[in-house]
Amino acid sequence: MPKIFEYLGILIFFYSNEHEPIHVHAKKGEFESKAEFYISNGEIYEIKISNIKGAKPLKGNELKDFEVFLEKYADKIVAKWISYFIYHKDVKFEKITKRLS
Predict the structure, then answer these.
(1) Which terminus of the chain is more solvent-facing, meaning fewer CB atoms within 10 Å of its CB: N or C?
(2) Measuring CA to CA, which residue among 15, 63, 22 is closest to residue 46?
(3) DSSP-assigned beta bridge partners for residue 37
(4) What are phi and psi of 26, to 5 degrees?
């Protein structure tokens, strides 16, 4: 399970056996959601957050924080997904402790 980011206590990661579409999981405590990235012509045109079967979804401030994080770091997340799953490279973990606006 490659951990790629932590933002305000929300762990953002991939499972090591992931599949397309490109997506990332976010977990804080017992809550977990995922975000799928839809890409056309090399550009992200939509990010869709969804629930994980059998898990309680992020909600409230944690969900809002995840949404803000996705907006600012979408390109980096996609780049890390491609590096890990396509090029089989290790990805660097980054911890962001300041609130993004």
Answers:
(1) C
(2) 22
(3) 47
(4) -130, 130
Q: Alpha-carbon distance 48 to 37, whole Å?
A: 7
Closest CA to 12 of 59, 44, 58: 58
What type of residue is 28?
A: K
Tell me the pLDDT tens digit for each residue of 15-57.
Answer: 877 778 899 999 999 999 999 999 999 999 999 999 999 999 9
Q: Which residues of 1-37 are buried (b: 16+ CB within 10 A; e: fewer)?
A: ebebbbbbebbbbbeeebeeebbbbbbbeebbbbbeb
Listed by start position, the domains of the chain span: 3-96
Instruction: Record the tokens describing residue 87, joined without a space.
Output: 């090029």
